[in-house]
Amino acid sequence: QQRQGEIRLIARTWRAATRRGAADHYINYMLGTGFKEYRETGGNLGVVALPRLADDRAEFLFISFWKSIDAVRRFAGDEYGRAAFYPDDDAYLIDRDLHVDH
Questions:
Q1: Most buried pick, 29, 32, 58, 63, via CB within 10 A?
Q2: Strand order in the sheet with 44-54
């Protein structure tokens, strides 16, 4: 049961990695692709990207916030447990999860 003033949401998490030197370019790319699509989807409450530099890699944890699982479906479709990819991802990513967690 939800208490008065309590906010419930869905957090969708996904991990990926780029070469360290490509990290800034990748985030700019995500601003125009994934982040843009998140924001244009009804029920999205925002997204954060948490980078971690390790040796020659930049590892990212992406967390998007959603009002409901129905909102997640509007973004990702019926197979919302699968990661969403964009046309130029292969130019940046050296590692990626194929699935997301909610």
A1: 58
A2: 44-54, 57-66, 10-19, 93-96
The pair of structure tokens assigned to 16 is 């990926």
Residue among 35, 57, 58 nearest 48 (CA): 35
| Residue-wise burial string across 14-48, b where 16 or more C-beta atoms lie within 10 A, e elsewhere | bbbbbeeebbeebbebbeebbbebbeebebbeebe
Model pLDDT for residues 23-81, shown as the tens digit of each residue: 999 999 999 999 999 999 999 999 999 999 999 999 999 999 999 999 999 999 999 99
Q: For residue 55, report the phi and psi dihedrals to the nearest 5 degrees.
A: 55, -120
What is the chain's length?
Answer: 102
Q: Name 68's bridge partners.
A: none
